[in-house]
Amino acid sequence: MESASQDINLNSPNKGLLSDAMTDVPVDSAASARTAAPEGLTLAEEEELRSELAKVEEEIGTLRQVLAAKERHCGELKRKLGLTPLDGLKQNLSKSWHDVQVSNAYVKTSEKLGEWNDKVTQSDLYLSASSTLEDWNEKLTQSEAYKKTQETLSQAGQKTSAALSNVGSVISRKLGDMSSYSIRHSISMPAMRNSATFKSFEDRVGTIKSRVVGSRENSTDGLHSPSGAGDNPPQDNAPF
Q: Do 220 and 212 contact (CB within 8 A), yes or no?
């Protein structure tokens, strides 16, 4: 490093030696730009692999462009058919669930669960518990308390049904009576008003009403008449 710095110095007497030494070194630009070949590969194999890599990358770019165009076309078709994103989500979920059902993991899990179920149902503990529960059920259904309770509930249900039926018939009969009474009343009122008895009673009421009204009018006129006060001469007050 010290000799290089001395050669770079312009005031040094050896200033031209460094440039001469550098001009003698051959420079290969292509070799310097290219990285060293991996071990075990020749230059021809490396060139072949690089060419194949470039082709694959180009194909990937082309496939991406084709996929984007296909997706746009698919979206247009769905829009024309009236399919919403929700329909697509349902379809995707259904497909995913179908894929899960046909997957090896799901099939193996189902088989394992089936084997465990068979083992549990065929075990002595399960069979003993099942027989014990069946015995208890049989004893319970054949007991006197169970039979009495069942009979009591049956009788209560029958009585309740009969009571509800009676209440319904009574309500229906009352409604029928009210409707028939209203019909008879509406029919009999015009006939009663046209009868002689009703007309005679109406005439008497009218006569009494006219007499009462006439007497009230006469009393009112007597009170407000000016001549009524002059007919009665004033009395002299006797001296004490």
A: no
